[in-house]
Specification:
555 residues; alpha+beta; Phenylalanyl-tRNA Synthetase, Chain B, domain 1; seven-stranded mixed sheet
Length: 555
């Protein structure tokens, strides 16, 4: 968890706190901040990575103003126009395609404020930016930049003066020898061209996501700041830009937009738009265990620096762009709790104790498991996801209505949802041909079936497999009948079955009360040859959902 050092004197000044500064320590935890240590007026506090606006004193002060009732509602800041343009070259599309910019004016930065901005920059790199892979940020003295700025690519021999260095370095040298290049170079992947920001005088602003150029370094006294945010995710780039823009505005800056000009589109950043969500007061009271009125909930949200209005039986909540951590109604309810004050909520210990019990389906499967083990079988577990080869090709079968395949899978071995358990058992037998026979194995598991017309069916199955030199249709049929006698006290009927992986004339559908409860039979020799199984195999697969319906009691 990230940690920030807070000077209570500076914080008290920002929120016009006229009481004992030490009392602020009692309030900070109610913002979701954990106090790690206190030394004099300096407090080290830990905050959630979901609240990167807390990386500076200004973000904490804005929330504290709300909790104290000094200010209410969402932070709103005007973004004026500017003549700054980022011209995006075609080459960056394949490397780091997205960029946003901010121009902040009217400042006079002190050393402490520069350190705060750099702390925010690095926290955004770690959290939103995923160690600069998704997002990287450059902070520049805008007085040393001559627009327009080109976001382009260069070769590895391109030279510039990196931040903190006194001589020119080639890009390849930065990547291979500079600490930042060694640490973050992998974020660029395999490429021969490298992203670079340069102004109209060809001064290098940044080699993202590695290091800034030295010409535009921020120094105390800087009054105009240009921010670039590059990345591989547009949403995350805009997220980071919104936090930076609001922080700069809270520091007293006047915000100006930057035009991002691609070959076919232009956009203005930063984006400080408002998102709207509905909130049900009944759900608020249910989760918090309170009886708040709509007006009390609205007031709590205003204190949490969100806007809210009553809209009939529900509330309309408006969320500022930098609060991208608010994604669900539950997040809003948490904000109600912060605005109301956890210190005002009294926990109730009047709990109703209950005892749990297994579901009927679980008890039924356990009875099946005990019965099959009692018949001399050993349980195995295979994966729900498998390959087309294991599920279809090696079995000599085709999908009936279609396959259920994982999109963008990391491995072809785990790509298709199984619609039957028997192929998994056969692969277990194939992997254990060196073990002593007989092999009697079973599995209880879930299958997923494409039923056509956009319908997907899911069910529980039992599969058994028998492998030894004399395994046969008769043996597996005897096993199934024993199981039916245990469960139902009856034996099923049979209808010939002809599809693979079973042998034609040596397989049958299992029928009881006109319901098809499964299949049993001998596995086709061609399937066994392909799997290098050198003994006969008989198998069966039963529909446990249908069987459970037919059982009146669970043993």
């Amino acid at each position: 968890m990230p940690v920030i050092e807070v000077d209570l004197k500076d914080l008290a000044q920002l929120v016009d706190w006229d009481s004992d500064e030490g009392k602020l320590l009692e309030i900070l935890p109610y913002l979701g901040l954990d106090i790690e240590s206190v030394e004099g007026s300096t407090v080290r506090v830990e905050y959630s990575p979901n609240r990167p606006d807390y990386a500076t004193l200004y973000g904490i002060a804005a929330s504290l103003d709300g909790i104290l009732g000094r200010e209410r509602g969402a932070l709103r800041h005007e973004v004026k126009g500017s003549d700054v343009v980022f011209l995006v070259g075609e080459g960056v599309r394949r490397i780091r395609p997205y960029i946003a910019g901010i121009l902040a004016t009217g400042l006079r930065l002190h050393d402490v404020e520069i350190k705060m901005l750099m702390r925010l920059q690095e926290d955004l790199h770690e959290g939103v930016g995923r160690k600069r892979r998704k997002v990287a940020i450059g902070l520049h003295d805008a007085d040393h930049v001559k627009p327009p700025i080109r976001y382009t690519t260069v070769d590895g021999d391109f030279k510039f003066v990196p931040l903190g260095e006194s001589r020119e370095w080639a890009v390849e040298e930065v990547l291979n020898k500079h600490p930042n290049g060694i640490r973050y170079g992998a974020a660029l992947g395999e490429t021969k061209r490298y992203p670079l920001l340069m102004d109209s005088e060809r001064k290098t602003l940044s080699l993202p996501p590695i290091i800034n150029g030295g010409y535009t370094m921020l120094a105390p006294g800087a009054g105009r700041i240009l921010v670039d945010i590059t990345g591989t995710s547009l949403r995350r780039v805009l997220d980071a830009a919104s936090v930076l823009a609001v922080t700069l505005a809270e520091m007293g800056a006047e915000l100006h937009s930057v035009a991002i000009r691609y070959a076919d589109i232009e956009m203005q950043t930063p984006d400080l738009s408002i998102t709207e969500m509905e909130l049900d007061p009944r759900e608020v009271n249910r989760l918090l265990g309170l009886e708040l009125t709509q007006e009390e909930i609205v007031e709590s949200l205003l204190k949490a620096r969100l806007d809210a209005d009553v809209m009939g039986t529900k509330l309309l909540v408006r969320i500022p762009r930098y609060r991208f951590d608010v994604m669900h109604e539950v997040d809003l309810i948490e904000e109600v709790a912060y605005g109301l004050g956890y210190e005002r909520m009294t926990p109730s210990y009047d709990l109703e104790y209950t005892t749990g019990e297994l579901q009927r389906s679980t008890m039924f499967k356990e009875s099946i498991r005990r019965a099959v083990i009692g018949l001399g079988f050993q349980e195995v577990l295979t994966t729900d996801l498998t390959s087309y080869e294991r599920l279809y090709s090696s079995m000599g079968r085709e999908p009936e209505n279609g396959t259920l395949r994982v999109v963008a899978t990391k491995s072809s071995e785990y790509e298709y949802l199984r619609d039957t358990l028997v192929p998994g058992l056969l692969w277990v037998l194939s992997s254990n041909t060196h073990e002593e026979y007989p092999h009697r194995i079973f599995e209880i598991g879930t299958v997923v079936i494409d039923e056509g017309a956009g319908r997907i069916g899911e069910g529980e199955r039992l599969a058994i497999g028998i492998a030894h030199s004399r395994s046969s249709f008769t043996e597996v049929k005897s096993t199934v009948e024993s199981l039916f006698k245990i469960l139902l006290g009856r034996e099923p009927d049979y209808v010939p079955h002809t599809t693979r992986p079973y042998s034609e004339g040596r397989a049958a559908s299992i029928i009881l009360d006109r319901r098809n409860l499964g299949i049993l039979g001998e596995i086709h020799p061609a399937v066994l040859d392909g799997l290098k199984i050198q003994v006969p195999v008989a198998a069966a697969e039963l529909d446990l959902d249908a069987l459970e319906e037919m059982c009146t009691t669970v043993k």
